From TrEMBL:
InterPro entries, per the entry: Mur-like_cat_sf, Mur_ligase_C, Mur_ligase_C_dom_sf, Mur_ligase_cen, MurCDEF_CellWall_CoF430Synth
Keywords: ATP-binding, Ligase, Membrane, Nucleotide-binding, Transmembrane, Transmembrane helix
Mur ligase C-terminal domain span: 397-519
Top-level class of the enzyme under EC nomenclature: ligase
Taxonomy, superkingdom: Bacteria
Molecular function per GO: ATP binding; UDP-N-acetylmuramoyl-tripeptide-D-alanyl-D-alanine ligase activity
Organism: Ferrimicrobium acidiphilum DSM 19497
Ranges that cross the membrane: 6-25, 45-69, 75-96, 112-130
Domain Mur ligase central per the UniProt entry, residue ranges: 184-326
Enzyme Commission number(s): 6.3.2.10
Gene: murF
Name the UniProt record assigns to this protein: UDP-N-acetylmuramoyl-tripeptide--D-alanyl-D-alanine ligase
Signal sequence residues: none
PANTHER family in the record: UDP-N-ACETYLMURAMOYL-TRIPEPTIDE--D-ALANYL-D-ALANINE LIGASE (PTHR43024)
Amino acid sequence: MGHELAVVVAVLIGIVAQTPALKWVRVGQREHYLPGRIGPFFALWFRASFVNQALLVVGLVLLVGSFVQSFGTEVHLVIAALLVICLLLTPFGLGFRGRTSPLALTSRMRRLLVAVGLIDVIVTLVGLVVGLPLAFALLAGFFAPAVVELALIATRPLEDHLLQRYVDDATERLLRVRPRVVGITGSFGKTTTKNYLATLLEGSVRAIASPASFNNRGGLARSINERLVPGTEVFVAEMGTFGPGEIAALCSWIPPEIAVLTALGPVHLERFGSEASILRAKLEITEQASVVIINIDYPRLALAAKALAGSATDRRIVKVSAIQLDADVTVKPNEEGELVVYLHGQKLAKIDAGDIAPTNLACAVAAALECGVAPEALQSRLGLVKSPANRLVTAVVPDSGVEVLDDTYNSNPAGARRALAALQRRGGEAATKFVVTPGMVELGKRQYPENYALGKAVGQVANQLVVVGMTNRIALMEGAAEAQATAEGTRLDAVVSVKDRDSAIAYIKRSAKSGDVVLYENDLPDHYP
């Protein structure tokens, strides 16, 4: 092969070798462009499949071969071509554009792609200087996850700077409109509580709430800039966090007068390391609040309520519960399938329990009262409260007659237990009950035991468990196997493993008949294996 042709082929191979980075760029986008998230997903994909482990080993051997200078040009090109094929396949199952969560070519994504390209060019230029341009181009392709991680770190200051002008606009608008701010946080139940509260405020207070799960810096700035208008009396802000200091930073420009803590659990334990760290991060919402509404059914939150009440500040603590009648607001189920709302132990109203989350409703009732809604007005609004989309919403499929419980937004141990209880209440004796789930994620060291427990719990309620994907397959199936091995109390007839959401839906369409009940518990996007 002539030298010029070899160079052209080498350049083309080097360019193609960079395309696998698109897979990891999409992972970065799905993980909110947070540095540090590519590595865990790299590990997750290669733990999940022997094929991916084999591809990684083969790719590494070929990469080493590309640096062996004693090989001729033709051999290097063959090695490079094989390595490119290996990189395009790796990790097997992770697509370039995706099905359930396609790559969105936003302005931020374009800037990230430019940064990835610049890093690849720099690595290749270094290779050119040392006389190994093809090998270094392949090196950049092989380490695409690390390249994307570096690009996320490099672009973070620029993205923060670009976002700041929207934050400044939102801050100025808040100062001009001057609504009372209700800040809501918690390990889970934030969006549900926010939606309940918005329903209870309607008709009594001019209020707006941040939409969907817009609960970070960019989402809240957008909510304020697009929705906050003169005359708004209350702004309800859902506040999420992936790390310490994030809620404190939000509160520095959206200071809540009323802070609500809905729940505490192992959600994002993988990021925080301990529930104590999660609690400290969530308590940042209370630092400027004059009223703190706190769910004391969680022991750590109960202790936090005592500590806050005993601190040398004038903030007022409002305790809510689904168990204790001596709380300020209690929403407690009764034996007739109703939820009874109590204020300071006195009955206010009863509503059909449906699939309403009692403690989330208690938080919303307490916040509505603090916002000036009269108890009498609350009585008429309570019956209008309903679950937000994909959070234990029930419907009957018209054509098939199958009842579906949609709890796909996310999942946590407490929410999964509540969803299984809802499934247990439904369907007649002849009904087949299905649970379709990929399990729960971001639980750190508790991920295996919690998913094992979920698989076991499904065995007490459902006839069939459909495990989606590889992420928690072993834990769910081993938990289900224990349930099946325990003859007493188990209903589980079959455990089915499918590769993805589409396969699960196809299985349900083939298997479920009129009168059957299907719980879809959690739904991981396809950047999870």
